[in-house]
Amino acid sequence: MLLVHGWGDTGETFQFLVDCLPPRHTLVAFDLRGFGRTAWAQDGYWFPDYLADLDAIIDRLSPDAPLDLIGHSMGGNIAMLYAGIRPQRIRRVVSLEGFGLPRTDPETAPQRYRRWLDDVRAGSPFATYDDYAGLVRVLAARNPRTPPDRLEFIARTWGRPMPDGRIGLRADPRHRRINPILYQREQAEACWRAITAPLLFVIGAESPFVARLGALIEETRMRTLIRDLTYARVPDAGHMLHHERPDAVATLIERFLTTQVT
């Protein structure tokens, strides 16, 4: 079972979910390029590279048999795209809040390219903190449902000491640049329609992204896109549901895996 994290996160924070799943599972998590403990790319970041990286990892881990894929947020989007692009490589898919982005307006392209050029020129570094406790306080304000011990773990995983003694983030700040290429939801949905594996789609009941995307990710519409869909909500959970309610998420995943034996 391969775990793909979201934007700004790392593979290590799947630990909360791993601890709640039965030990019979073989679980592998990794850091996407430019996040966590991976090196920063010299030439910047292009979304399809994540698909190529995932393809190479799957070739290494399971060259002769399909495997199970779990992704959160951006990682869920990567997982769903890949499952439609290479359906023969994937046995089952779990997407945790991995529903893509809203539709874009081509008329915004000039402004978007302008913002990207400004970002390239000015740079957009991440904030730094006096110590790990300062990072924990910021994480707590943004993620009030996540218990303090998990926030401490996340801070130690996301952060690192800087040469000046402050605490910075491991992620490459170039990830903050706006993507100059407009998101094409129609292309993403075409890939989703090509998924042949059973798919568990999980959302947090309190997630702000659910409200933002609205009808695009309602269950009735998702069933028109995914041929074998299990749709679930986690109560009292926001976007970072695998940090906030790993027990509930693990229960959904285990139920899905045991009812979708292949």
Describe this structure as you would to a colleague:
- Helix content is 42%, strand content 14%.
- It has a domain at 1-103 and 183-262: Rossmann fold (3-Layer(aba) Sandwich), CATH 3.40.50.
- The chain is globular and about 50 Å long.
- The chain is an alpha/beta fold.
Briefly say what this structure is.
With 262 residues, the chain is of the alpha/beta class.
Helical content band = 40-55%
Q: Can you say what the CATH homologous superfamily of the domain at 1-103 and 183-262 is?
A: Alpha/Beta hydrolase fold, catalytic domain
Number of helices: 11
Strand/helix succession = EHEHEHEHHHEEHEHHEHH
Mean pLDDT: 95
Beta fraction of the residues?
Answer: 5-15%
Q: Indicate the CATH architecture of the domain at 1-103 and 183-262.
A: 3-Layer(aba) Sandwich
**Rg, nearest Å:** 18 Å
What distance lies between the first and last C-alpha atoms, to the nearest angstrom?
14 Å
CATH fold title of the domain at 1-103 and 183-262:
Rossmann fold
Low-confidence stretches: none
CATH C-level class of the domain at 1-103 and 183-262 is Alpha Beta
Major sheet: order of its strands?
Answer: 2-1-3-4-7-8
- Helix/strand/pairing category: alpha/beta
The biggest beta sheet is recorded as: 6 strands, parallel
- Using the alpha-carbon principal axes, give the shape: globular
Number of strands: 8
